[in-house]
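Appendix C: a fully annotated inverse folding record. The material below is reproduced so that readers can follow the format used throughout the book. The structure is listed first as tokens, followed by the designed sequence.
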């Protein structure tokens, strides 16, 4: 009777260093975010990596594959992060809450003008940030479902976003959302490569 020889399972490289999954993921000029994420004290390393990959517009299946984990493990990571951040477990709300926290690195400000968003588009964006399903925005006596869908489509196009989580990241990069003390002047100085020396009044929340 022969005995099958089972080769030892090799450890996925990302298991040893989860930040390897972020290699070559950031656009030019945003690579410093990797170092900031490594040093951030908020959330566990794998949770920080997963949220960032999702914020960059990657789908859950792709993130799980890139991190060498199952979809169920990714879901558990998000649930654990939601308990720390004290927000619902929907991906856009988790990303928004992380960027609101002073211990989580912000993405680099985007170059170019901030797009003008209509009230309806801002409502869709706010629903992403608050984990509010889009159908909750549909009130027959206020706005039609067709209008909500149109607002969502235009919002994603204006922000050049692929997913709702990516839309949240783009909104932070464009200054639509900002932490207290981070203003348009600070954003302009950052874009021009001028060190930030002072803070001013809060930006829009």
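Designed amino acids, in order:
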């Amino acid at each position: 009777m022969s005995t099958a020889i089972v080769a030892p399972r090799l450890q996925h490289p990302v298991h040893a260093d989860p930040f390897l999954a972020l290699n070559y993921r950031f656009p030019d000029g945003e690579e410093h975010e990797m170092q900031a994420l490594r040093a951030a004290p908020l959330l566990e390393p794998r949770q920080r990596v997963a949220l960032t990959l999702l914020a960059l517009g990657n789908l859950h299946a792709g993130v799980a594959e890139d991190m060498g984990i199952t979809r169920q493990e990714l879901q558990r990571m998000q649930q654990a992060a939601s308990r720390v951040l004290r927000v619902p477990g929907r991906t856009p709300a988790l990303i928004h809450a992380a960027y609101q926290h002073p211990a989580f690195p912000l993405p680099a400000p985007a170059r170019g003008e901030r797009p003008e968003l209509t009230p309806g588009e801002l409502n869709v964006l706010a629903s992403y940030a608050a984990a509010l399903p889009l159908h909750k925005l549909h009130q027959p006596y206020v706005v039609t479902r067709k209008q909500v869908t149109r607002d969502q489509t235009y919002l994603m196009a204006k922000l050049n976003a692929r997913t709702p989580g990516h839309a949240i990241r783009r909104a932070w990069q464009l200054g639509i959302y900002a932490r207290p003390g981070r203003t348009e002047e600070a954003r302009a100085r950052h874009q021009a490569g001028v060190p930030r020396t002072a803070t001013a009044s809060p930006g829009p929340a």
